Every structure is written in structure tokens, then in C-alpha cells.
């Protein structure tokens, strides 16, 4: 890799290891079934969409990529999975973005730690897989994904954005503090505070003053896992840092309100949030 490229997207060195996931899961993760009748399905007409392999520091990981079938290079949006991995809902979000002219790519960030798609219990997902995923690994994999988009010739990483949901919402804040080339991020109900550890050395509130790109946070006022007081703490930290980032808190709205395949879906708030995402990206040059 040319030195210039390494400087643009630095990758930490990891020991080459066996990857537990070499291909993406199909359909929806077992833990979220049965899937709601209101699930949104976006077709691939006019798109190039499907699984790709992303070279990373210690091997390669599978990812889902969708983009317009002709033209380019396109603005790039990294799509960061929920706690349930890159299943059908995350793939559909990539297709929705591709319909709007983006190259959207969702790397499977649990590939080394395990396949959550066949786990029926959320506690099993957390204890066996998610709790073992280091933030440093995730940052490196996202850098590698942006680099893959650049080297494909179809992605313009001068127009780089990121969005993520639930587990991925937290990651959006961290990546905005990590990558100086990022233009904007949109975090959907990602945890803002918490206990730190060797694998999770910082949380979003710890990096509020270090953000290198503005983040739009979209949160539910009735989210039992993300208390409103932590949202207000983050708002205060952003204000103290002079950050242009913003947080929208939807009243009486639960966690997972964008997840149209689950009972937590709230159509009005989801659609409003989506329009805010598109406007945020446009405002900050991811268009």
C-alpha cells in the first residue's frame, strides 16, 4: 500500500487469525424473528448490490455493498450494524442509500468473534460475541472499508459519511473522533456513557471534545437503555466543546424506532430521522 494511502487511513497492526465469519448471514438474525409485517424491502433495480470482501489488517471480512449501477465515483457512507450484525435490515439500509446516489457499505464487524445470526437470545449475542469486540479493531476495520471504497474506483472518500444503529450508533461517535477525513456522522440511539475497559477504553461522552466531524444523534425519549439524563450529559459536553454536533430527542419514543422489522418501529419518527440524516449529510458535504 502506498505510504500516502496508509496515512489517509492508518491501520493498526493485528495478528493474522482465523475469522469465524467469511460470508454474511442471510435473512434476519434469529433473535429478531418473527419479522414484522411492516418491514421495508428495497429492490435492487438500478443498483449494483451484494456481498464483497474487505481486506483488513489481519485478513479479510465480508461486507454488503450497494451503489448505483452506472456512474460514479459516489459519496461513501459506512453503515454500522446493530447488535444483530449485518442482517437483512442493514443490507436494506444500504440499498436505500444507494437509490439516492451513495456507495453504501456495511462491513461485518463481528467477523472474528462469531456469527450472531443463528443466536436466538440477545444475552447470548452480547456475552458470546459483542462483549469480545474491541473498539480498536472496529476503528481499523472501518478505515479499511473506506480504503476499499476508494480503491474500488467507485467511492469518493472526500465525501465520506457514517451512520450506525444501536451498537453501531455508539461506534459512529467514536469514529467521528478517530478519522479526520470523515465529513459527517449520524448516530441512531447509540449508548453515550458506560463503564470503560481494555476493549472499550472510551465512550462517546469521553470524546465529545475530540470529534473531527459533526455528528447528528437521533434518540428516543422512552429508551429504557439510554436514559434521558445521559443524552443531556452528552449535549452539555458537546456544547462545552463548541461542537457543531446536534442531538434530537424524540418524546415517548423507544429504542430501535428506525428498525421497521421490529415492534419498536415508529414510522413518523423513523421517517423524520431519515430526512434529517439526508439533510445532515448534504449540509456537511456527503452528497
Could you give a quick summary of the protein structure above?
With 287 residues, the chain is an alpha/beta fold. It has 7 helices and 8 strands. β1 and β2 form a beta hairpin.
Topology order in helix (H) and strand (E) letters: HEEEHEHHEHEEHEH
Count of DSSP helices?
Answer: 7
Shape: globular
In total, how many domains does the architecture comprise?
1
What does this protein structure show overall?
This protein is of the alpha/beta class. The chain has one domain: Rossmann fold, CATH 3.40.50. The chain contains seven helices and eight strands; from the N terminus they run H-E-E-E-H-E-H-H-E-H-E-E-H-E-H. Strands 1-2-4-3-5-6-7-8 form an eight-stranded mixed β-sheet, sandwiched between helices. Helix 5 links the parallel strand 5 (155-165) and strand 6 (184-188). The longest helix has 17 residues, at 135-151.
Element layout with pairings:
Elements lengths: L2 H6 L38 E10 L2 E10 L5 E7 L7 H12 L3 E5 L14 H7 L6 H17 L3 E11 L1 H12 L5 E5 L26 E6 L7 H14 L4 E5 L16 H17 L4
Parallel strand pairs: 3-4, 3-5, 5-6, 6-7, 7-8
Antiparallel strand pairs: 1-2, 2-4
Helix pairs in contact: 4-5
